[in-house]
Design brief:
single chain; mainly beta; Immunoglobulin-like; 2 domains; six-stranded mixed β-sheet; five-stranded parallel β-sheet; 2 helices; 17 strands
Length: 233
């Protein structure tokens, strides 16, 4: 009887190991960037940002990148094979930017953050995921819901929009959004990418005649910016 119990226990340990932290597949597909721990999911061909590094936990502003080593970041947090949900945890982060590539996050992935503001740059974001966010304010595109901004001081419309500015561009043509008011924490977005082209600056009109001088709008104003592209072929 004792031998059977011991054997059963060893089998459980082996299965546990193969399912999670003992599995070489998980180890070889995890990297650490400066601020994030990232898992490359080869099955679905996407990158998953699932935790913060020690340095990441010290930042007041965090920008989840749209691509890491050429992989699209489509998921925040992941169900770990060894049980439980990985999540982003920080006592210092005040503002978090989510990229246009992000489509979903696991339940509880951001519940380790208590933010002043979260900026969601994805037009495909699922409404039911927003209930997981612990943030005083959420800035988001209005393209997927007409009800978010009805007399709400929780969901905010952006007052600065960056457009990819080419036909059939992703995310409904939106690259980056933000809501700027006074001393809001803010970072300029990274350079957008387009295959076969080089980014050539942000302009005030789709025809790219007048380049933006980096002056931000007031909270009452709205600023629309358009990417200029130069062919590298």
């Amino acid at each position: 009887m004792i031998k059977k119990i011991v054997a059963c226990g060893m089998l459980i340990i082996i299965v546990f190991s193969l399912a999670g932290c003992g599995n070489p597949y998980y180890r070889k597909n995890v990297i650490h960037t400066e601020y994030f721990k990232v898992f490359f999911d080869e099955k679905w061909d996407l990158a998953v940002v699932f935790e913060l590094t020690d340095l990441g936990k010290e930042q007041e502003i965090l920008v989840v990148p749209s691509h890491i080593d050429g992989w699209r970041v489509e998921k925040l947090g992941r169900q770990m094979g060894y049980g439980g949900n990985s999540k982003l945890e920080s006592e210092k982060c005040k503002k978090l930017y989510l990229p246009y590539t992000l489509k979903y996050f696991n339940s509880g992935a951001v519940r380790g953050l208590l933010l002043d503001e979260m900026v969601i740059n994805s037009a495909e974001y699922m409404n039911n995921s927003l209930s997981q966010i612990r943030s005083k304010k959420v800035v988001t595109l209005e393209t997927y819901s007409d009800t978010l901004f009805t007399e709400s001081d929780y969901y905010l419309k952006p007052n600065i929009y960056y457009h990819f500015n080419y036909e059939d561009s992703p995310n409904g043509g939106y690259y980056w959004i933000d809501n700027i008011a006074g001393e809001n924490l803010y970072v300029n977005p990274e350079t957008p990418m387009r295959e076969g082209y080089e980014f050539a600056g942000w302009y005030l009109e789709p025809e790219c005649e007048n380049e933006w001088d980096d002056t931000f709008p007031s909270i009452e104003e709205e600023l629309l910016l358009y990417a200029d592209w130069k062919s590298i072929d």
